[in-house]
Design a protein that fits this description.
By secondary structure, the protein is an alpha+beta fold. It is built from nine helices and 24 strands.
């Protein structure tokens, strides 16, 4: 049996690891009370389809690079403790050696100190000033003339940028049945009537969502729409007169351009943190994989060295004119610093429009920054093999056609909703006749996520045609 997912035309060699992550940092690392991703939901009961939950977000791939939404600090702490221990040992050894050298020198060098002659002592005594009982006095102390300057009038490009943009930025706080505390992310105002943009992984599976502005004003947010493939989400708060961000043109961004990120890293005490840097690279292809190392999607992102940490996810990356050019989403972890990645805003805006209008993404063609791997979320075997199987052979009638025998179907998936059931036989997929499970894998590899496809099935002694949109592997 085999669970099918195509490679979407992408190279089988993966360079990466992202996304996680979602356990509560309070449980995983006592020094980090919050993170920017939802905690990992309890694993659903296995349906035998593909050994993993279809609702899982994409995960880091540890073979070469480690892209993640959060990090664990225990490795760094252990390395720091080892480094401190090494320094302490070196210092102690140095002190011991110096003490040994001084002891040896004091033993071998004779005492050449000769006493001062009485005449010399007399001369020294004669030249010494006479003692006086009067204490010295100080008069005419100079005026220090310290002038405190007024820094309220001092302004820089970055302070003006922060004053202009920070009012449109928010913290996003999510809770999960009260079991995991809360998780933390960032966002920004899309419209004056209450639409808020953030990342999907920030609010995924959340029971309650609160949007907090940096002045402390809070609103309970409703989820308008969210999409795991693009990792984007739109919230709505009942507020008017908000100041939306200015949307820039990410297609015009150049390497070396100055940028700033505004968000809420670590926890709420650091809400409104601004970090600055430059655009370090463009069109960086980041491969995201599942727990088994299979590529589930490739995201084409903007690279920046502006600090992006857990909690910054979903927040804006501004250019020097105060325009949003990206959405902070990923960073390269472990020993690496200053390598962050952002979703380009020009294509993200099209996704936001679909989420507001439909609550979901209907057309991934407009989301050119992501290429997702399609998946049927079924487990199959060739009919010829099934006939020889002791488990399934008796369920296949003598008049059943050749094709792909369905062993399991994951509930809630598109093909399940279209009507596919276990023990059905798929004889044709998207116009291609199927004689084996390899034929289905090849046909699926030519398709894309969101594409409408058809399948001809043998269902309880008769042929039926199913039409549905392909799900993502993520």
């Amino acid at each position: 049996m085999e669970d099918f997912e195509s490679n979407g035309g992408m190279s089988p060699e993966s360079e990466l690891q992202n996304r996680p992550d979602g356990v509560n940092p309070a449980e995983e690392n006592e020094t980090e009370p919050a993170c920017d991703t939802p905690p990992e939901a309890p694993s659903p009961a296995s349906d035998g389809s593909d050994g993993q939950s279809s609702s899982d977000g994409w995960k880091p791939y540890e073979r070469k690079k480690n892209y993640a939404y959060t990090w664990r600090a225990d490795r760094s702490e252990r390395r720091q403790r080892r480094s401190e221990a090494t320094v302490l040992v070196v210092v102690l050894l140095t002190v011991v050696v110096l003490c040994a050298l001084l002891l040896a020198w004091s033993i071998t060098v004779p005492d050449d100190t000769s006493a001062v002659s009485e005449a010399e002592n007399s001369e020294i005594a004669a030249s010494a000033p006479e003692e006086s009982d009067e204490a010295p006095t100080f008069t005419d102390l100079p005026d220090l003339n310290i002038d405190i300057k007024d820094y309220d009038t001092v302004s820089t490009l970055y302070t003006e940028l922060y004053e202009k943009c920070s009012g449109s930025c928010v913290s996003v706080i999510c809770t999960y049945n009260g079991r995991y505390g809360y998780t933390l992310g960032s966002g920004f105002v899309l419209s004056e009537d209450g639409y808020i943009a953030t990342n999907h992984h920030v609010i995924e599976n959340a029971d309650t969502i609160v949007v907090r502005f940096y002045d402390g004003t809070e609103y309970t947010a409703a989820l308008v729409g969210s999409d795991s493939v693009t990792d984007l989400a739109v919230l709505f708060i009942d507020a008017g007169g908000l100041e939306p961000v200015q949307i820039g043109n990410s297609d015009a961004v150049t390497v070396g351009e100055a940028v700033v990120a505004i968000g809420t890293p670590y926890d709420l005490t650091l809400a409104g943190t601004m970090t600055c840097g430059i655009v370090s690279g463009l069109a960086r292809d980041v491969e995201c994989t599942d727990d088994y190392g299979a590529v589930v999607k490739t995201m084409t992102l903007i690279q920046t060295d502006a600090s992006i940490n857990p909690g910054n996810s979903g927040g804006p990356l501004f250019n020097i004119y105060g325009q949003v050019i990206g959405i902070n989403t990923l960073k390269l972890m472990d020993e690496y610093e200053g390598i962050g990645f952002c979703i380009p805003i020009t294509e993200a805006v099209e996704v936001f429009r679909q989420l507001v209008e439909y609550g979901e993404v209907n057309d991934y063609g407009s989301a050119g920054f992501v290429k997702a791997t399609p998946k049927l979320h079924i487990t199959v075997m060739s009919v010829s093999d099934a006939r020889l199987s002791a488990d399934y052979g008796s369920s296949i009638g003598p008049d059943a056609p050749d094709g792909v025998y369905v062993v399991t179907v994951t509930p809630g998936t598109a093909i399940y909703e279209a009507g596919l059931e276990t023990y059905d036989i798929i004889t044709e997929f998207n116009g291609i006749t199927l004689l084996s499970k390899e034929d289905l894998a090849n046909a699926l590899s030519d398709c894309s996520v969101g594409q409408t496809v058809s399948a001809v099935i043998w269902h309880r002694g008769e042929y039926k045609t199913l039409t549905f949109k392909l799900d993502s592997a993520s």
